Amino acid sequence: MCVVGGRTDPGAIVAVAARALGGRGRVVGVERLRGGTRKGVYRVRVEGGRDVVVYVWGRAEHRWPEAAVEREGPFADPDGLDLFLGAARVLEGAGVRVPAVEWVERDHPGPGVDMAVVEDVPGPDLEGLLARDRRAGMRVVERLGPVLETMASLRGSGWGRVSGAVRGEGACERLVLERALRDLAEGARRRPDLAAVRGRVERGVVEAAARVEPRRRYGLVHGELGPDHVLVGAGGEPVLIDVEGTMFFDVEWEHVFVRLRFGDLYRSLEVPGLDGARLGLYAWAQRLSLVAGPLRLLEGGFADRRVLEGIVEAQMGWIGAHV
Question: Quick count: other Cβ atoms within 10 Å of Cβ 69?
Answer without folding.
Answer: 13
